[in-house]
Amino acid sequence: MIRPLLSAAALALLTLPATAQDYEECNILPGDGTSSTSNYEQIGTAACAQFCVETEGCAGWTYTPHNFNPDGAPGECRWVTVVGEITEPSSTASANYCGRPDA
After folding, report:
1. Coil, helix or strand at residue 51
2. What pLDDT score was predicted for residue 90?
3. Where does the chain show beta strands of DSSP type E?
4. φ and ψ at 26, to 5 degrees?
5. pLDDT tens digits, one per residue of 31-60
6. Which of 2, 48, 49, 80 could in theory staple to 30 by disulfide, Cβ–Cβ 3.0 to 4.6 A?
7. How far apart are CA 18 and CA 49, in angstroms?
8. Phi, psi (deg, nearest 5) at residue 54
């Protein structure tokens, strides 16, 4: 019983990075004094990107995998109405992926 669960968990962990590799590692910061809005229900970069496309006013998104705030969240999808600075990941930061619906 435990062996199939461990196999499924290992497979799930291997598929997340493969999906994330389709997106650029970066971070979009809000611009014009606006703030970002978080959504913890989107799982994966593709879901976060699609959420931005379907959300009126979304100009850009950043997805952080494996964010545990709130407890148990599979990741954090943040979106902004005005795109400010787009930063490259640093070697000390966790991998963030970002994009714009018009790109």
Report:
1. helix
2. 65
3. 27-30, 37-39, 60-65, 75-80, 83-87, 97-99
4. -165, 180
5. 988 889 999 889 899 999 999 999 999 999
6. 80
7. 16
8. -85, -5
Q: What is the pLDDT of residue 24?
A: 84
Are 41 and 78 in contact by the 8 Å Cβ rule? The answer is: no
Amino acid at 25: E
pLDDT of residue 1: 52
**How many angstroms separate the CA atoms of 90 and 26, rounded?**
9
Confidence (pTM): 0.71
25: DSSP letter: B
What are the φ/ψ torsions at residue 16 (nearest 5 degrees)?
-60, -50
Q: Which residue has the higher pLDDT, 96 or 72?
A: 96
In whole angstroms, give the CA distance from residue 59 to residue 34: 12
Q: How far apart are CA 89 and CA 26, in angstroms?
A: 5
